[in-house]
Amino acid sequence: MLCQMRRLYTASVFSSIVHSTKCTASNKAIVFQIPADFFKQYIPDFHYILFSLEIQKGNPVQQTKLTVFKETLLQMQIANDIRPKGYALRFNSLLFEIMYQLYHNFSFQVYQPHLKNKIKDMERLDIILKYTLQNYRRHISLDEIADLVYLQTGYFCRFFKKNMGVTFLEYQNELRLSYIYRDIIDTADPIKEIIERHGFTNYKLFRRMFHEHFNATPTQVRSQKTHTPVTLNIT
């Protein structure tokens, strides 16, 4: 999934949709995640529902609903930041309010004849991504990762590219880059040490990929230090 962010932009991404974000300039954002299993406790037909925050232009009713949704999300952020006495009650009440708004105002049912196969693919992909996250600092061969999910190597490559939009090697390198970027911003560790920590052994390849992704060198990124995302994870 690819979309261009803009000021006050709000987007929803369903759990079965593989997605990523990339920013080459300073930004501040709220990332709000609700685990699918948490939703399923209260919405039995969750697998047959999609959420969309895209609204029709010129529709005042939908615009009002979206404005209320944004305000509720901001109130959650305030409660989480300030944490007054009993803030957990306030935060959780707003969480259920957000879930209600999503379900009541921004959901629609979908029929997917191959839903069971799709769920199986996502479960398999989840195993792959979790294993990669745990082991990305070292070389993971295609045979190793394919064996993990009982697939032939050739089929695994096609499966991964179809679902992720990139090859497994490209994904592993992008994962490394994301952690390297974070450490460049958040620590004063030597850049060479950071690169090696996260599994990059080819410095020339790293510099090329880093510049392609962030339009800057690691030193330039570190000198800015203005990227301050705000994250809310509901677990």
Walk me through the topology:
Blueprint: E1 30-33, H1 36-40, E2 49-51, H2 60-82, H3 87-105, E3 107-109, H4 115-135, H5 142-148, H6 153-164, H7 168-186, H8 191-197, H9 203-214, H10 218-224, E4 230-233
Parallel strand pairs: 1-4
Antiparallel strand pairs: 2-3
What does this structure look like?
The protein is mainly alpha-helical and 235 residues long. The protein folds into three domains: 30-109, no CATH class; 115-165; 171-233, Arc Repressor Mutant, subunit A (Orthogonal Bundle), CATH 1.10.10. Helices cover 56% and strands 6% of the residues. The strands form two sheets. It has a two-stranded parallel ribbon. A two-stranded antiparallel sheet has the order 2-3. Helix 2 (60-82) packs antiparallel against helix 3 (87-105), helix 5 (142-148) crosses helix 6 (153-164) and helix 7 (168-186) runs antiparallel to helix 8.
Give a quick summary of the entry:
With 235 residues, the chain is mostly helical.
Low-confidence stretches: 227-235
Shape: globular
Q: Distance between the terminal alpha carbons, to the nearest Å?
A: 24 Å
User: What's the average pLDDT?
Assistant: 83
**What is the string of helix and strand elements?**
EHEHHEHHHHHHHE
Helix content: 55-70%
Question: Biggest sheet, strands in spatial order?
Answer: 1-4
Q: In this structure, how is the largest beta sheet organized? A: 2 strands, parallel
Strand-residue fraction? 5-15%
Q: Give me the Rg, rounded.
A: 20 Å
Helix run count:
10
Determine the structural class based on helices, strands and strand pairing. Answer: mainly alpha
In total, how many domains does the architecture comprise? 3
How many E-type strands?
Answer: 4
